[in-house]
Amino acid sequence: MREDKIEVAMGIDPREATLLTLVAMQLKSGKRPEEVLASVDFKDAHVQEIARGLAGDQSVSPSARREADRIAKWAGLPLASAG
Amino acid sequence: MPTAPPTRQTVADVLAFLGLGARPDPPRWPPDAFAAAVLLLQRSGAYRLAVDRWPPGSLAGWVSVIEDVGRRWRAASTDDAAPLPQEVLGWWRTLAASQGLGVDSLAQDRPAVEACLQLLAAADEASAGVGVLDPENPPDEFGQRAMGLLAADRDASTLCIEIEPSRALVLPKMHTPQVGMSIRSLSHHLAYCDAGDVCPRWDVAPKPLGARSLNLLVLPWPLEVVPRQFRESPGRLENMSQETFRFFTCEMPEAVGVERVRVLLENAERLVGRVDAIVFPELALRPDDCVRLAKSLQRVVIGGEGAPADPATRGAGSNAAVVAVPLGRDALATRQQKHHRWRLDERQIGQYGLGSQLHPEHAWWEYIELGARQIRFWCLDSWLAFCVLICEDLARQDPVAPVVRAIGPNLVITLVMDGPQLAGRWTARYATVLAEDPGASVLSLTSAGMVRLARVPGRAPSRAVALWKDGRGGAPREIDLEEGAEGIVLCLTRRMTTEWSADGRSDEEATGQLLLNGVHQVYPARAPRAEARQ
User: Fold this and answer.
1) Range list of H helices, B209-274
2) pTM tops 0.90, yes or no
3) pLDDT tens-digit profile of B138-154?
4) Which among B144, B166, B330 has the least Cβ separation from residue A1?
């Protein structure tokens, strides 16, 4: 669209957040977790880990699980920490 | 050699411009059809006919029909095997039959105008709730596909599939103007934006507020600014008249400590229970401060970050608005550069007492880089989206004002480096414009240091570091920083209101309006309990 690229800030690209919201939406709509995770291409490893936690993966780090729980609670999804 | 005479722009030309030319059937995806209808109605001026003779039937019939068509179109939009509603097919074919018509004659072709207005309204109804995650409503395929489009890796967001972003953009919308009559008056859920010199981005926080209020801790820092912090800077514009114009840059020496902010945050939460975001004025912070603070404090941080120009390299300084949203052990962040340089004139040099540094015989331009222009919209909840503007970007209407009015964020935060935020000054004037159309609430915030430095002729010294204006009417509210305080908590409460489109559709109380219902001073002293722990 344009030659000069938009400057980015330190931190995670917020598009990753929108993708995470998309994962929450797809899980809430009843899609299978593995199908959802396969359809989304995260660039940030930590956000991907949070998404895995949201999809019920128990092997994620505690910080990712906490964050996944917060999102799940709001979105009305099962908590990642519930096992 | 004779040249061909200029030709009129036709309906076909407009559709071809969007990449939708010469097709008998409408786009399956409603935002694509919305863009076509909007562009035709806008270029022809025919949108005004929605308040001339409308609807084609009774109002109750119109609303229920268009809602029903919208629902069916939404369902069919994600299923290639499903037929599109007959109404949509009929309206598009009416339009296709008028392809040879000059756009300037469209308003005289009543069937074509009605087709456009109905396509626009049905596409808008089909897109209800787009761009947000609403826990009350299970997301359908349309909502999921729309969210995927918004997350696409490109500079500008768009909900379109068939229309390339260099041609036109369609984004989610939060406010429908309730005054005046423009093309924006016709939709609740979709905003049309010309592709051009500013890229709008729509980002969604995955961890929404989950509350009916928004508590902002505003820190009007630095608390002291002295003239020595303004200095002349060499620039790279060899063609600039040195007799008339010079460059200046600002040094903001005070580094912001996390612990200092943490104490104020704790004291603020003792007052109001919960702080959702911390806001700093223009150039209050150094690069990367917002992300550092957001990660440490686990709060949204919105602030002006900057760096002075470098005289050794003649490199320009930076001035940007950063929004950092904590996520796990990291933070999401957007950085939006200031679009316009501040120009200090003789009156302002006198007002801020800068004569020892910047001679009033010259006009002084702020020496900052002007990068690719972008405006970021953050959706924090199903009812709340905000954007940030930096000082001049509120006053200069181009290029962001049309985008802000189209999308209609619920909150516009303007970070300024300015004198007192008085109801009679410029920020109040421009805030009032946005409060009326699109209906946004507007907060402007400057530093206590700049307020103290300023002497507004004919006015007593003021302590007003912030100004609030909401769409409820009435005068803008000046917000003082009291002696000894270092921050203020603003309690913004949500009121759900009903907005109407010009074609008679209600959004059924789906619009969140932010109202200021609490102002509390925050002092730096640690609370006794915290001191006892040390």
Assistant:
1) 258-272
2) yes
3) 789 999 999 999 999 88
4) B166
